[in-house]
Amino acid sequence: MSRALMTQSAKTLIASLLFTLMVGLLSLYNEGITLKNAPARSKKLNKNITVTGDDDDDELFLEWNENEQRTRQILLERSKTIIPEWMANYVTWHQEQRRILFDHNKISNDTASDDIDMKFMVIRCIENHKCGGLSDRMKPLPFYLMVANLTRRVLLFHWTKPSHLEHFLLPPENGIDWRLEGTPVTIQEVRNNTNYVNGHASSLSYEVRMLAGTVDGGDRSYLATCKVLNVHLNGGQQVAEAQALFNLWRKEPGQLMPAWSSGSAYLGWNPDAGITQREMLEDVWRFLFQPSPGVQRAMFDLMRDLDIVGKQFNAVQVRAKDPRLIPDSIQESKKLDMIENYNITPELRAYFEHRYNNAIACLDDISNHAELPIYLTSDSKFGKSYYEDSALPIRTPTFLKGDPLHIDSDRYQGRDPQDFYQAFVDVYIMQKASCFSHSAGFGLLPLRLNNNLTECEVTHTNQECQGKTTDWMSPTRPISADEV
Question: How many CB atoms lie within 10 A of CB 237?
Fold first, then answer.
């Protein structure tokens, strides 16, 4: 084994031991946080945090929120020891660029000044453009960092669909500040379709090589030097498997090979490196995002209502309205997942029942703790009513009035951002589960954001499950004497 590999192994071991110690301390801390025993704290809340007027509730929220923030910072510091060196260097470089901008703006009070020698890459999603759901938008994050680093561009995000991204997620402290605010990038430049590449695998392979200067860009060579490069999210053939694209890029004949294209590989995707894009998504997310105050409060309120704050629970996620899986003969629209209100025919009801029952049975197959509460979330309100009188330990979101809104539907533009909170709340809550039964697609996102979940998870859309406890297949099973 080379000295470099031995050194890296030693670093990884030390980081792992430190992380284990920190998690142990946090576990002890968490045991003191319950709904019945909230330690006395200062009444002063963050000015961005919504308070309810209930002193006990706000005290508990403050305690929980501080613990969440502390945990995120510990995990972020751990991520710094795991990510490839190039990525750690890019994070530092990005932070330096933001400091340069901050100092410049303090002196000149002109963020749009042309005397700043800096280039930007904006991941954009704007109204009336197909961007995909939350999972499709987020899975390529490591790839976006790779392109931004290759091109030495400051990575930024700009969403207006379904609303501004800042309503849902914000940059973390000591992370990457991706907001347009404080930069010379204007909205007009972000909406420019000239300095623009499409986040579509078939076109992006060439575009990235051209941007990195490894091939002649021809009549699009200006993209390599333009001040603002826009990358439009595309929910069709999303760059969800950027590993395949990267490896294809490396193997193409006659390509000018960058120095990083061999050996340990650029993103750690070399099999010898033992790191995959899926594993890296967890760390990249920590550098880019934390919940907005509104989402953070909504998450706490829901967990409090379901009595799972600081407690173990399992999770089941069902994408019941996936039009790709529903037989054409029983769905009124091929865009059922984009519709809030629709008619549930007897045939569609039977289909939904099977989907939910199978998801629950798959959880029962993998979990050894049938007594734990089950957080059940879905794209349909059907599950809430279906299990409402169930003896199963199922907890469903309490704020549901109708079906959760799909964030890529054009018909919901202009709705209150809070109407879209559930997708973001679900991602954060499902990460906390002990065992997780999920669909493909959206259900994979929380799984990628907490790799510990891989020890007890199942994709229920890929298989038919029986369940170890046969009466779990019936939501109205009789209550045993032990459960009274």
Answer: 13
